[in-house]
Every structure is written in C-alpha cells, then in structure tokens.
Amino acid sequence: MSNFPAAQQPANNAPQNPEQPPQQQQQQVFDPYPTVDRRERSRQPKDFNGDESKYKLWIQMVKNYLIANAQRFSTDQLAILFAISYMTEGRAADWASHYIDMHQTNGKFLPTDTWVEFKKLLEKSFDIRKTKQKAQTDFSVLKHKPGHLEEYILNFRTLAQRAGFILQGIENPMLAVDFLRGLHPTLRVKIVQQKNAPTTLEEIIEDARAFNQSYYQSVQWKDKIMGWTPKLAPHTTFTPHSTFTL
C-alpha cells in the first residue's frame, strides 16, 4: 500500500523520475518560547529608558508577562534578570548596570535580592510620584556653593522640572524667590540691592553670572598683584543624573 495520502497519490501513468531527490522534511524552526501563546509574545514589555512618565505602564507590562509565564520565571532572580534585560537605554541602563554591580557576586544575586525588594528600588528611582517628592525635598535644601554657580543653576533647573514647578515650559513665579534663597549671600545681596533689581528668574541668573564673573576677575587681579587666593568650599553639590537612588 502506498505511503502517500489518498489525495496526494500519483497517477499510474505519471512519469517517474528516478533522479528526483526524496522530498525533504520541513525544517523545524527553534521556538525560544515553546510554552507561550503567539498572542502573549506580542505583549512583551518594551525597552525602558528611565522616562518616569512611562514607568508605571512598563512595570505593569513586566508584571503581566511574568504572571502569564510563571513556569519560566520560577525564581526571583529570573524575574529580576528579565526586567533588567529591558532596561537598555538612557538612565534605566545606567541604573541596571549599577544594580548588577552592587548586587551580584560571581554572577549570582544575594539571597536578600527578592523581586519585592527589587521593585521597591525601581519605584524609588523611577516612580514619578516618589521621585517628585524627593525632588521637592532636595529642591528645598539646595544651596549654592562658592565657585560652583553653573552647577547650582543646572541643579536648580533640573530639580524644579522634576519637582513639578515647571510645567510645559511655564515657570512658577516663585522660582525667582527660591533661586535667591539658595544663592550665596554675597551674590544675593548684590542682586537685590540694585536700583533696578531683577524680578524674573532669567534676569536674576543673568545678574548672578555677571557679579560672579566680576568677583573672580578681581580675585585673579589680587592673586596676580598680591599673591592672594580665596579659599573655596569643598565641591559637594547635588547632581541628579550622576547618582543612583538604590
């Protein structure tokens, strides 16, 4: 009896070609997710770049995928590694690299590195509600250190943005007062005692830079004439994007 299915049996008068190679079996494609439905694969998380406004959606997609594929992620370490594998861009990539450096020994996580603790650390760094609260706290105590005016300006603007004091390019009028409050007293007095004192943040920053430049030009002159050099405070400014909240 022929091995061909009835619908595929060749006719008796069909020409036979003895040189024709036997029919090749269809090559099986390797499936990296054999237990995952095709529809479920399309729901994998997208890469996360550290954008706080997208964190809640991203972490929810991660959790949904872990739940749908629980047998593949049977340990906390596998779940953590899965989440980290999607932190490939921007601040999220820096955070993930730092986490691995701090929490892995010989390629293994510490026993205390559970999914619950990992998620708490993520929330401290990327949950917009918690990062906003921290930015507001840091903003309230930000101070200008002598010799580091540009860093103070940068940190002031960064924290004001993250704290929600600047929305869609519109600045809170109180930012000018806040900037003066954290400015070094020497510059603050010079600015506010002017006959036509500035009122907007940009005008105050412009005057602060002008007075600061004038001060250090006079310092250079004194140093050249009398060999006098001012003592500056140590460099201890807050830099939001170069530190990790772990």
Q: Spatial order of the strands in the main sheet? A: 1-2
H and E order: HHHHEEHHHEEHHH
Low-confidence parts lasting 5 or more residues at pLDDT below 50?
Answer: 1-10, 24-36, 235-239, 241-246
- State the total count of DSSP E strands: 4
What structural category do the secondary elements indicate? mainly alpha
Count of helices?
A: 10
What is the rounded distance between the termini?
A: 72 Å
Overall number of domains = 2
Portion in strands: under 5%
Q: Give the helix proportion (percent range).
A: 40-55%
Largest sheet: 2 strands, antiparallel
Q: Average pLDDT value? A: 76
Q: If you compute it from the alpha carbons, what radius of gyration comes out, rounded to the nearest whole angstrom? A: 31 Å
- How would you describe the shape? elongated
Please render the helix and strand layout as text.
Blueprint: H1 38-41, H2 55-68, H3 76-84, H4 90-103, E1 104-105, E2 108-109, H5 115-126, H6 128-141, H7 149-162, E3 166-167, E4 170-171, H8 175-182, H9 185-192, H10 201-226
Antiparallel strand pairs: 1-2, 3-4
